[in-house]
Amino acid sequence: MTEGLKLTVDRRQGLAVLYTDGYINNQGGEEIARAAYELIDQGYTQLLLNLHGTKIINSIGISILIEIIERMLQIEGRLGFCSLTPTIEKTFHIMGLAQYAGIYPDEAAATADLSPGA
Fold first, then answer.
1. What are the distances in angstroms from CA 12 to CA 16, 73, 118?
2. What is the mean pLDDT of residues 94-100?
3. Closest Cα partner for 116 from 11, 27, 4, 15?
4. Whole-model pTM?
5. Could you report the per-residue pLDDT of 31-71, keeping only the tens digit for each?
6. Helices then strands (H, E): number in the chain?
């Protein structure tokens, strides 16, 4: 049995960081998508998903993350991922997410690149 996803959002000047804690499956992915689309509707064009608290993402969760990437490309925004486990990072490269979204070792590197004016 896996636990649900806990999601926290930190809104900053021009950049929103979404912190995940738990399993990203269809329910967790949908929760992330709802939050991301709400942020986009509020005018955020730079989003960062800090996956420090996530150890597992299933295929449905990945497909939902791809949908968020597609939406970010439509608005000419940028999406980044940081603090991934080695397995998740490898999966993101294999699935092609790294082509369209930045992958960063930690939040400091991500925010330095994604923050407006960077």
1. 6, 21, 14
2. 94
3. 15
4. 0.94
5. 999 999 999 999 999 999 999 999 999 999 999 999 999 99
6. 5, 5
- Domain ranges in the chain are 6-45+54-105
Which one, of 15, 9, 11, lies nearest residue 111 by Cα? Answer: 15
CA angle 31, 7, 4 (to 5 degrees): 70
How would residue 77 be classed by pLDDT, with cut points 50, 70 and 90? very high
Contact (Cβ atoms closer than 8 angstroms) between residue 76 and residue 42: no
Which residues lie across from 48 on neighbouring strands? Answer: 17, 80
Task: Specify whether domain 6-45+54-105 bears CATH 3.30.750.24.
Answer: yes
